[in-house]
Amino acid sequence: MSTNPAFEMRNISKRFPGVLANDNVSFAAAKGEIHALLGENGAGKSTLMSVLCGLYRPDGGELLIDGAPVDFRSPRDAIRAGVGMVYQHFMLAPSQTVTENVMLGLRDMPFVLNTPQLAAEVEKIGAQFHLPVDPHAMIWQLSVGEQQRVEIIKMLYRGANILILDEPTAVLTPPEIEGFFRTLREMAAAGKTIVFISHKLDEVLSIADR
Asked: pTM for the complete prediction?
């Protein structure tokens, strides 16, 4: 694990009508680190990470990626900088294949998204990080745990080096959680930064570096 921060959030504030969700919050994580963001539901964890991934713009504070200030105006801006988030509620098209879902939304993609070459690339990423999923399967055919793998592969395919996971174990069975933690450790060993949002202290103590 590197001592250099992959990202820094300095004095971030985010307001909604009648609610101060984040009040002058600072948070950072190193490259190759699994960093837990722990708190009860409604504590502002997801809001803070939605700022990091470009879904929300902060009302105050500064965000740095690899030491350089950034101003994300959308999740597309964030993923260009290597930041991706997997939410509790997946954003997949049920009537399309795994490969098509991974490719959807990318610019400069061919009209036909389910070619053997693209499917092989999806399968390679899955094999690298122990995220087994059939690239030709339809999303509606997959279990919830498999759909989560598709969301993670989608972020990795887009070049995410900072991966934010919002309550990822909520949809997994105990055996799936064990395999999922193995995947997180492998991604961290490959130099990726993982932010693990949770309210489950036992899981945090099991998987997180901090």
From this structure: 0.90
Reported as a single tens digit per residue, the pLDDT across 78-91 is: 999 999 999 888 98
Cα distances (Å, whole numbers) of residue 150 to 130, 156, 166, 197:
12, 10, 15, 19
Amino acid at 8: E
Sheet holding 68-70, edge to edge: 19-30, 5-16, 60-65, 68-70
> What's the half-sphere exposure (Cβ side, CA atoms, 13 Å) at 128?
14
Specify whether the CB–CB gap between 190 and 28 falls below 8 A: no
Q: Radius of gyration of the chain from Cα atoms?
A: 17
The answer to whether residues 129 and 180 touch, using CB atoms and an 8 Å cutoff, is no
Backbone torsions φ then ψ of 136, nearest 5 degrees: -95, -5
